[in-house]
Amino acid sequence: MYLQFLGTGAGSPSRFRNVSALAFKFDAEIWLFDCGEGTQQQILRTNIRPGRISRIFISHLHGDHLFGLPGLLSSRSFLGGGAAPLTLYGPVGLRRFVATALELSETALSYPLTFVELDGPVAQFDSERFTITARLLEHRIASYGYRLEEKPRPGQLDIDALRALGVPEGALLGRLK
Fold first, then answer.
1. 119 part of the active site
2. Are β-strands 86-91 and 113-118 bridged in parallel, bridged antiparallel, or unpaired?
3. pLDDT, averaged in runs of 10, over the chain (177 residues)
4. Which residue from 105, 140, 152, 154 lies 20 to 30 Å from 99 (Cα-Cα)?
């Protein structure tokens, strides 16, 4: 797992810091948390391919957290995005914001876009590897914090070490694992 900060500024960008965006990279997948203005420029300075972004989590609908989203969605169609589906998570209003931006700019996406709008104090989602919990935070507008918990995964047995310890092969190895 790897976190890549694409922007840590709040409110507006500064000379050395972009507004909010964070990439969470694991396996062959990338999840993006917030997508402030200039996120695409930051992505160009990394090895992130937009087509590998499969989920985008928007904390709240202030511009410094989502004004980069329409451009990224549009560019993703031809910057290595292809037809890979994308799911957007965020407060109620996210769908309307994106739909309006795409409609007014006459932008057609080359991939399926799914929305999960949050409207309660807590929501939980599962991926193959993680449980994602969204919890309502205190802010002037609806704002969510996201918590990722990796699901338990079976470990690897060091067969040579077990043999050296005299552990017999067979059903016992399965139980140890």
1. no
2. parallel
3. 92 86 94 96 93 96 96 85 86 98 96 96 95 96 96 82 81 73
4. 140
